[in-house]
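COURSE: Structural Biology Practicum
ASSIGNMENT: Worksheet 4, Part C
STUDENT ID: 0417
INSTRUCTIONS: Below are two proteins. For each, the amino acid sequence is given first, followed by its structure token string. Answer the questions at the end about the second protein only.

PROTEIN I
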Amino acid sequence: MAPPAHRTATLTQGPIASTLLLFALPILASNVLQSLNASVNAIWVGHFLGESAFAATSNANLILFFLLGVVFGISMATTILVGQTTGAGDLAEAKRVVGTGTVFFVVLSLLVALGGFIGTPGLLRAMGTPIDAQPYAIAYLRIIFIALPAMYFFNFLMMTLRGAGDSRTPFVFMLVSVVLDVALNPLFIFGWGPVPRMGIAGSAVATLIAQTLALFGLIAHLYRHKHFLRIQRHEWGLLRPDPAVLRSLVLKGLPMGMQMIVISSAAIVMISLVNRHGSQTTAAYGAAAQLWTYIQMPALAIGAAVSSMVAQNVGARLWDRVTRIGRVGVGFNFLMTGTLVVLIYLFNRYALGLFLPGDGDAIAIAQHLNAIVVWSFLFFGVTFVIFGVVRATGAVMAPLVILTVSMWGVRYPFAALLEPRFGADAIWWSFPLSSLLAVTMAMTYYRYGGWRKARMLAEPAPEAAQAPTTGVGTPAMTAKVED
């Protein structure tokens, strides 16, 4: 028997625009909090512990970003599976997804944490971490690996809740985690009273404590409020992994995680081209990239919100709402990303001045490259909204192929081949060119591709009665995805 309506945050009814916006804003705020948290922690380490310590955290965070990037895809697969089954009203299947995901993330995180803790020195040497930074990096990264199970499971629960239609609770506990992390950093770095001075290891300990407390607080909240997806004592059998669900999490999640790797690896290769033009150009690119991080956040948040909302409507087989969600998402992208783009153009020099001295050559270079690149993030946003729609059905390979072609097949070759003739401008123009190509391919796939026939689970549930597709009917009790 399905729980009362107030127990679930349904995304299959009501006005699409306001529902999507209210769902996306907490996701956006969570992304901003994570970026600010990383920046504040970097300030503590860089300003008070020296360059070697800062270099250590930079190298360690590259490893952490890779590990979280891979698990991001599997977490997103959880979001979509929970969304589809919740939208279909099949809460027993939704709980089966949660049970399988719980065991998978616990086992995976413990294995990665153990292997990472043991292999930390070798990992850092393989990365070419500077000798003077290695002792700092080892002390920092080993504690981060201890914190990894809490990080993984916290991320899993947040994505599960978003799939169930709740983005506010994850934001609240993300806020708790960030506030604790920021507050505890100076305490454990410098020591106070009975707390010993721990240096760079103290920054990692702050993260460990913050993530762990936020995780247990979130779990306690879910059980205290009797969340409909909580695993109760008589349901412990659900913690035995379901092969079909586990296969879907891995086979659908890995391509989504690979998207993060494609993006990050392309960024590493592009900066190697930028470095050829000297420190001023590199500094300019670095400052512009700081702004680009925030410009892209609305599109990423809207794309994630669209995935959750579409997944529920796919589960309910409300295909007319799926189409309208995509259109509204694109509209919000133009509004939110467009506002940031206009602000950057109006206050270009001032914004870059937050990162660069106002009297150097770098700020002029940064203004020039921003003028070429920034407008293209509008189309980047459209691409990710479309990705959010199609992946919610289980179509995960097309977005990966599109990203790979646009970044590795167009952006890098264009910049590398034309750089000898046009200089750094070839690099800057490669960004809008690849963005335009990506949005063209994404729109073509959306229009003509077979994403509506994709499925998250290889063996769909038996078909139930067709729900009315008016956008206001009762969701069909099925997890099957049909065109």
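PROTEIN II
(use this one for the questions)
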Amino acid sequence: VTLLIAFICVRSSVWIDYSAFSYFEVVTICDLIMILAFYLVHLFRFYRVLTCISWPLSIFGFLATFLCLASVWLSYKISCVTQSTDAAV
């Protein structure tokens, strides 16, 4: 749901720099498709047929994605706090 909201926000905003906005469109759509594919594999139990993928190890991929997003958010938060503190001084 969050990726769909992010795509709608990027798509409906005023485009100043085409390349930057198209990059975020592609990223949100690719992530949405990937999550949908994993959901369908789980829903229809295709993981029993697809033995070439180590499904227990795919949990680590989701964990790594979450940690990467947390890192990006914390880096952004730290840089914004630093900039606002520097501007106040």
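ANSWER KEY EXCERPT:
Q1: The chain has two domains: 1-50, 54-89.
Q2: The chain is about 80% helix and 0% strand.
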